[in-house]
Predict the structure of Octaprenyl diphosphate synthase.
Amino acid sequence: MVTIVNAPSLPSAAAAAAAETPDAGPSSTHRVALDALLDLVGDDLTRVNQTILDRMHSPIALIPQLAGHIVAAGGKRLRPLLTLAAARLVGYEGDRHISLAACIEFLHTATLLHDDVVDESDKRRGRDTANAIWGNKPSVLVGDFLFARAFELMVEDGSLEVMGILARASAVISEGEIHQLLTSNNIETVEEDYIQVVGAKTAALFAAATRIGGVAAERPRAELDALDAYGRNLGIAFQITDDFLDYSAREAELGKSIGDDFRDGKLTLPVIHAIAHGDDEERAFWRRCLEEQDFSDPHGEADLAHAMTLLARHGALEETVRRAHAYAEAARRALDIFPDSRIKTILTEVVDFSVERAY
Amino acid sequence: MVTIVNAPSLPSAAAAAAAETPDAGPSSTHRVALDALLDLVGDDLTRVNQTILDRMHSPIALIPQLAGHIVAAGGKRLRPLLTLAAARLVGYEGDRHISLAACIEFLHTATLLHDDVVDESDKRRGRDTANAIWGNKPSVLVGDFLFARAFELMVEDGSLEVMGILARASAVISEGEIHQLLTSNNIETVEEDYIQVVGAKTAALFAAATRIGGVAAERPRAELDALDAYGRNLGIAFQITDDFLDYSAREAELGKSIGDDFRDGKLTLPVIHAIAHGDDEERAFWRRCLEEQDFSDPHGEADLAHAMTLLARHGALEETVRRAHAYAEAARRALDIFPDSRIKTILTEVVDFSVERAY
């Protein structure tokens, strides 16, 4: 009954770069950073994509169909690129980074599938989510499959150290996701909670992605820790910027919707800052919108406009950008122990991209 | 904001045995098999339970709360018991089987959490499911956490062979679950599909559980394969019996509801057999009930009664029991290569229990 179909094709490195940089506006300098990274490790990324295609195969045709939908959805491949780049930075010349980068993408994809189920999302990057097309059930189970497949790849790689890093990261990611559930719709959430959530749900995989690039090359502990710190701080800067963009005028200028987090009642850094500095009346407003999700018009437009006013009143967006830049600076500094090189320059520019991108 | 709470306590080995054997009726002989197994490895099981408690800890209090709810729900601990028993059978004297058995239970629990979300179940063993209490979101994410934690335990154990076995089993289990989704509500499903589904979703973990007991003891390949065959055939026999019981008069006598699979449109062995031997009119009946889920009364009672008549007409329940016994016999035979011992006798009786239990 079950037939095997060809797995969907994946975008080439060049197409991935183009998909990731739809605008040549304010971020064009940083587009250069990602292009340069793809120039340097594009051949490796092609091999990673092939490994992903090969290893999401299953006699159950729905698995490569559904997994292919999300894997081919035009993501940046930022996390596997970080593994490739880290390996390059430390002069690694073997092949292990290819399958390790594929592992990272599998873990990330599994997380996205489960996230979309948990968030009841119907769109990701403008396309229908897997759960919107196939329903929650296969999305949960294909996520499980990809997670297991990632560990199979690790076993083939054969490093207990890598496996320990990625098993730990996986546990931390789910802790972060659960912690985030608990902060949602809760205006008592403070910045410390937020940074813990972001450090776990986003930055743990960035840190693991860069660290295992160094582990593949069997580099000394100090270099592994530096790669870890680079990835971790980059990941936090990246996520803070994501959360900033949801309230950003620049996002609105690009024709993207803003305020999704507001309508979902997510406690991200901009609102946490505004709440911390607001008076009782403002607090009542945030409670009504974020906790009770009781909006004064059907789409919450008037409330979002008022929220933007409060964010401006307290300089919350500027403060959010400042935080992102502080983590970005820590990421850059983490690279200090490595000698100057083309790839080191590019990794520095990737940090700039992470905080200055408009998408 | 997040506070740490004490993890819930787990039932003792004796309480677990009692919980699993609520009736002293037709299964009392087989209750003796499980009691005997608990007598032999009860101390080990106590240590497994302690490891489970220790390792489901997280600073996010919801994790041990939710995981504890399902872990402590009075399951048989059959799968971890199989790891302990397999290790005992091959004369293992170390400690690795304790954490490996805990791994198996974590993987099983993760699967149950996701299953209950996928099946939209609100009861398991008569108690509210985690998703019924806390919702789908934390159930999916705590499942992910337990899965990751299982791999952390494997890394600590340090055997790539064990990790390979369990990563592979995990991938196969999710393939089986997805395959099962595709057979649901599809009366074209044939016995081969069913056996593939059961072999993957249930028997793969039984086989892995017994095999790693032998791996811990570093036994030769032939013994590992025998343990694997024992677990695999036992698992298939166990699941076929489960599916039989859903249409069993004995189940009804015990006051348990029957026909859940019928109402859900699951293509289990009894109906697959009846459909294969039915005429066009019967086929139309099965299509209406199982595919279209269009019942003639609100709870499908009249249709269930007719389904039972059709099962009886084609001897489908007897045939199902015959199949279960054939797999049970294969499980028993797999033990032939091991010298006679008390634990071997008990493992044989566990097979009898799996096909003759009334619960």
Observations:
- Residues 1-27 of chain A have pLDDT under 50 and may be disordered.
- Chain A touches chain B through 46 residues (CB under 8 Å).
